[in-house]
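Researcher: I'd like a structural prediction for the single chain below. Treat it as a standalone chain; there are no partners to consider.
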Amino acid sequence: MRLDRSELSGLLPHAGTMCLLDDILDWDETRIVASATSHRLPDNPLRRQEGLSAVCGVEYAAQAAAIHGSLLAGKQDAPVKPGYLAAVRELELAVGYLNRIESTLVIRAEKLHGNETGLLYAFAVESNGNVLLTGRVSVFLSA
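Model: Treating it as a single chain, here is the predicted structure.
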Protein backbone atom coordinates (compact mmCIF):
# COMPACT_ATOMS: atom_id res chain seq x y z
CA MET A 1 0.00 0.00 0.00
CA ARG A 2 1.50 3.30 -1.08
CA LEU A 3 0.72 6.64 0.61
CA ASP A 4 1.65 10.08 -0.68
CA ARG A 5 2.59 13.25 1.18
CA SER A 6 -0.99 14.52 1.48
CA GLU A 7 -2.05 11.28 3.20
CA LEU A 8 0.92 11.42 5.58
CA SER A 9 -0.19 14.68 7.18
CA GLY A 10 -2.98 12.87 9.02
CA LEU A 11 -0.59 10.25 10.40
CA LEU A 12 2.03 12.57 11.92
CA PRO A 13 1.82 15.37 14.47
CA HIS A 14 4.31 17.33 12.34
CA ALA A 15 3.11 20.04 9.98
CA GLY A 16 4.47 21.93 7.01
CA THR A 17 8.14 21.49 6.22
CA MET A 18 8.67 19.49 9.42
CA CYS A 19 6.91 16.57 7.73
CA LEU A 20 10.14 15.31 6.15
CA LEU A 21 8.86 12.28 4.23
CA ASP A 22 7.36 12.38 0.74
CA ASP A 23 5.59 9.04 0.63
CA ILE A 24 5.32 5.53 1.99
CA LEU A 25 6.41 3.02 -0.61
CA ASP A 26 5.43 -0.13 1.27
CA TRP A 27 4.52 -1.36 4.74
CA ASP A 28 3.30 -4.44 6.57
CA GLU A 29 2.91 -5.57 10.20
CA THR A 30 6.62 -5.27 11.03
CA ARG A 31 8.25 -2.87 8.56
CA ILE A 32 7.83 0.32 6.59
CA VAL A 33 9.67 1.82 3.62
CA ALA A 34 9.45 5.56 2.99
CA SER A 35 11.10 8.04 0.65
CA ALA A 36 12.16 11.65 1.03
CA THR A 37 13.67 14.47 -0.99
CA SER A 38 13.43 17.17 1.70
CA HIS A 39 17.10 16.64 2.62
CA ARG A 40 18.02 18.76 -0.41
CA LEU A 41 15.79 21.72 0.41
CA PRO A 42 17.55 24.88 1.62
CA ASP A 43 14.61 25.57 3.97
CA ASN A 44 14.67 22.14 5.63
CA PRO A 45 13.87 23.01 9.28
CA LEU A 46 16.70 20.81 10.57
CA ARG A 47 19.35 22.30 8.30
CA ARG A 48 22.06 24.53 9.73
CA GLN A 49 24.38 26.92 7.91
CA GLU A 50 26.92 24.18 7.16
CA GLY A 51 24.24 21.78 5.90
CA LEU A 52 21.92 19.00 7.03
CA SER A 53 23.91 16.76 9.37
CA ALA A 54 23.52 13.03 8.79
CA VAL A 55 22.45 12.78 12.45
CA CYS A 56 19.17 14.37 11.30
CA GLY A 57 18.50 11.11 9.47
CA VAL A 58 17.35 9.81 12.85
CA GLU A 59 14.34 12.15 12.59
CA TYR A 60 13.52 10.75 9.15
CA ALA A 61 13.56 7.24 10.64
CA ALA A 62 11.54 8.33 13.68
CA GLN A 63 8.87 9.81 11.40
CA ALA A 64 8.71 6.55 9.42
CA ALA A 65 8.31 4.63 12.70
CA ALA A 66 5.57 7.05 13.85
CA ILE A 67 3.67 6.61 10.60
CA HIS A 68 4.04 2.84 10.91
CA GLY A 69 2.56 2.96 14.41
CA SER A 70 -0.36 5.09 13.17
CA LEU A 71 -1.02 2.71 10.28
CA LEU A 72 -0.99 -0.30 12.60
CA ALA A 73 -3.32 1.40 15.09
CA GLY A 74 -5.72 2.28 12.27
CA LYS A 75 -5.68 -1.28 11.01
CA GLN A 76 -6.63 -2.48 14.50
CA ASP A 77 -9.22 0.29 15.04
CA ALA A 78 -7.21 1.39 18.06
CA PRO A 79 -6.51 4.97 19.12
CA VAL A 80 -3.12 6.35 18.18
CA LYS A 81 -1.01 7.02 21.26
CA PRO A 82 1.40 9.96 21.12
CA GLY A 83 4.99 8.76 20.99
CA TYR A 84 8.20 10.42 22.12
CA LEU A 85 11.69 9.53 20.98
CA ALA A 86 13.31 8.07 24.09
CA ALA A 87 16.68 6.80 22.88
CA VAL A 88 18.91 6.28 19.88
CA ARG A 89 21.28 3.33 19.97
CA GLU A 90 23.94 1.84 17.71
CA LEU A 91 23.93 4.90 15.44
CA GLU A 92 26.40 4.54 12.60
CA LEU A 93 26.95 7.34 10.09
CA ALA A 94 28.56 6.68 6.71
CA VAL A 95 28.30 10.31 5.55
CA GLY A 96 28.57 13.70 7.23
CA TYR A 97 25.76 15.62 5.52
CA LEU A 98 22.53 14.49 3.90
CA ASN A 99 22.08 17.63 1.78
CA ARG A 100 25.09 16.54 -0.29
CA ILE A 101 23.18 13.42 -1.41
CA GLU A 102 21.55 14.28 -4.73
CA SER A 103 19.23 11.28 -5.05
CA THR A 104 16.10 10.35 -3.10
CA LEU A 105 16.48 8.96 0.41
CA VAL A 106 14.91 5.60 1.17
CA ILE A 107 14.10 5.09 4.83
CA ARG A 108 13.56 1.54 6.10
CA ALA A 109 12.31 0.83 9.61
CA GLU A 110 11.56 -2.52 11.18
CA LYS A 111 9.66 -2.98 14.43
CA LEU A 112 11.71 -5.24 16.69
CA HIS A 113 9.51 -4.95 19.78
CA GLY A 114 6.32 -3.23 20.82
CA ASN A 115 3.86 -3.12 23.69
CA GLU A 116 1.48 -0.62 25.32
CA THR A 117 4.31 1.55 26.66
CA GLY A 118 6.90 1.58 23.93
CA LEU A 119 8.34 0.52 20.60
CA LEU A 120 11.78 -0.41 19.34
CA TYR A 121 12.70 0.02 15.67
CA ALA A 122 15.86 -0.74 13.72
CA PHE A 123 16.37 1.61 10.79
CA ALA A 124 18.50 2.35 7.77
CA VAL A 125 18.59 5.44 5.58
CA GLU A 126 19.87 4.72 2.08
CA SER A 127 20.29 6.36 -1.30
CA ASN A 128 20.97 4.58 -4.57
CA GLY A 129 21.68 1.38 -2.67
CA ASN A 130 24.27 3.04 -0.41
CA VAL A 131 23.63 2.94 3.33
CA LEU A 132 24.01 6.44 4.79
CA LEU A 133 23.14 5.71 8.42
CA THR A 134 21.75 2.92 10.57
CA GLY A 135 20.64 2.55 14.16
CA ARG A 136 17.80 1.80 16.52
CA VAL A 137 15.22 4.13 18.05
CA SER A 138 13.20 3.57 21.20
CA VAL A 139 9.84 5.30 21.38
CA PHE A 140 7.94 5.90 24.63
CA LEU A 141 4.15 5.80 24.21
CA SER A 142 2.12 7.99 26.56
CA ALA A 143 -1.12 6.79 28.07
